[in-house]
Amino acid sequence: MLACTLLILFAGGLQALAVRVQVTWDIGYLNISRDGLSTWRAIGANGQLPIPPIYVTQGDVLELTAINHLDMPVTLHAHGLFQRNSTYYDGPALITECGIPSGSQFTYIIETRDQSGTYWVHSHYRMEGIDGLRTALVILDQDTSLLDEYDEDVLLTLEDWGQEPNNDLMERLQVTPFANLSTDHPTVLINGINANFSQPIRFLLGRRYRLRVVSMSFTYWFKVRLPGHTMQVIEADGIYSQPSAVDGLDMCPGQRYSVIITAKESLEFNYALNVTFYSDYIPQISGLTPRYHHVPIVYRKDAPTKTFPLIEDHEVKWADEYAMESRDKHMLLEPVDQHIVLNIKTLINKVGIPNYAFGDYAYNNVPVPPLFTALTTGDMALSPSVYAPQLNAIILKHNHIVELELRNPDTVMVHSYHCHGHAFQIVESGPVHKNSSIPVKRFRGRQPMRRDTITLAANRYVRLRIKADNPGVWFQHCHQEQHSYSGLAFTFIEAPDVMQRTLRIPQEMIEFCRILGHPTRGNSAGRAGSDMTGIKPPLAITGTANSIPDTR
């Protein structure tokens, strides 16, 4: 359900017309088969799946109302939106809010004046997102000069879809190793339907198509190619780049790209957009991993589809964020005020189930969301002692330049890191283990590419930079849902002193916490100072990562 009202905004003496876009999701269960293979209780909105994409124009105010008819709380996260001055609308459960109780409703206010591009919205409570509560969010550009670069706008959403409710799957994963579960391998949905029956995209001669590709995945990676055509990358995760020609996109869960593809001048052939669904850390199983799908690109209805010789991945020029430059003239952030190094650690329990951590402790929720702690503990909010160890809380000072080094010493496992509240500059990547043949990649231009989601490849580190100019509590986590669920997350507590002067949590959210039995004041346990009585001790992740030498 969508409605629009007009707002008159005044800025710098100029009058601008903005629109208040009102979208209502009546969230409930649906017994549905989206892939034609299995029927199970999924989660949809307004009685439908897929949920229609949301389109707004930069400067609009999106009011997204969630009416919760589930038997558990629900939250919504606008993936990639900075939520400047409104961290409480960011969505991760028990971090910036307690959730919307069953039978209640709440409206998220999402400002778009500072952002445009390609995003998506999904639940951030347990497994509700992967069970269906997700859709694309497109913020159309206010700058009409960008429209001169293409003629048509085409949306391509890529989803993973399981064979059972994922809350059930995650409960089984606590007692059964992942590799032994035959139903763990999801199928692929393209624009909401089984990828084996992908709907064709019509190309007209010589026209320029902006293809917005959204990986709404919580598990595996996607590769996207259109043989016979060149892709000009112009956007990654809502950040515009200088145009760069590539053959394909290699996308981790949560990433987005916009590419411009110029259609051929001949009707002789049709073509196939190749979509590969894969994961480097899962053993290859014929027909399951990887999976190959094709979206017909139709020039003429009765034309044959042109075939191309198979080529190896290393022969493909993939989009490379280390070689890209942002278009908005944001120079490399320097000098660095705070350097943070986090090693990914893994602990395998006695039945073979992994727990993960950025550092020493697996992430876990606590009674008081850290945003509430940051706003109610006065000067103590600047001390890590008021945040339970399992929050992996890192305090950032206002406007400091922060360099974050994430190190994945595992030689097999790959992760997908998503940053809430910021788009980070991509500075460097290289091998964790010094005897590796993996090359070091450094950004060597003047305007590093920025994005909010990036692959943490096996045996590699990445160095990223942000400016701590967005006071709030920001969840940082692996976007493979089973990894985040198993502890691979941490939190930025950004400028809590500034937060206390500028932020006020909506009263409805405070009431929701009380309904759900969560304290709304004090440290993580709802107590004073560093007294964490009543909180379960954190799960310590022991390993060899700390013995790996710093590569700086």
Sum up the structure in keywords.
mainly beta; seven-stranded mixed sheet; globular
Measure the end-to-end span. Answer: 52 Å
User: Main β-sheet: number of strands, strand sense, barrel status?
Assistant: 7 strands, mixed
Binned strand content: 35-45%
Please give the count of helices: 5
Average of per-residue pLDDT values: 91
Number of strands: 33
Instruction: Give the strand order, joined by hyphens, for the main sheet.
Output: 12-11-10-14-19-16-17
**Silhouette:** globular
Based on CA atoms alone, the radius of gyration comes out at 23 Å
Uncertain runs: 6-15, 179-183, 544-552
Class per helix and strand makeup: mainly beta
Give the fraction of residues assigned to helices: under 10%
What is this structure, in a nutshell?
The protein is mainly β and 552 residues long. 7% of the residues lie in helices and 39% in strands.
Describe the protein in words.
Helices cover 7% and strands 39% of the residues. By secondary structure, the protein is mainly beta. A hairpin with a 5-residue loop joins strand 22 and strand 23. The C terminus is likely disordered.
Chain-wise SSE layout:
Blueprint: E1 2-11, E2 14-32, E3 40-45, E4 54-57, E5 61-68, E6 76-79, E7 105-111, E8 117-123, E9 134-140, E10 152-161, H1 166-173, E11 187-190, E12 193-194, E13 201-202, E14 208-216, E15 221-225, E16 231-236, E17 239-246, E18 248-251, E19 256-262, E20 271-278, E21 291-298, E22 338-348, E23 354-358, H2 370-376, E24 393-396, E25 401-408, E26 415-419, E27 424-431, E28 441-442, E29 450-451, E30 453-456, E31 460-467, E32 472-478, H3 481-485, E33 489-494, H4 496-502, H5 507-515
Parallel strand pairs: 2-5, 4-9, 10-14, 13-21, 22-25, 24-33
Antiparallel strand pairs: 1-2, 2-3, 5-7, 6-8, 8-9, 10-11, 11-12, 14-19, 15-18, 15-20, 16-17, 16-19, 20-21, 22-23, 25-31, 26-30, 26-32, 27-28, 27-29, 27-31, 32-33
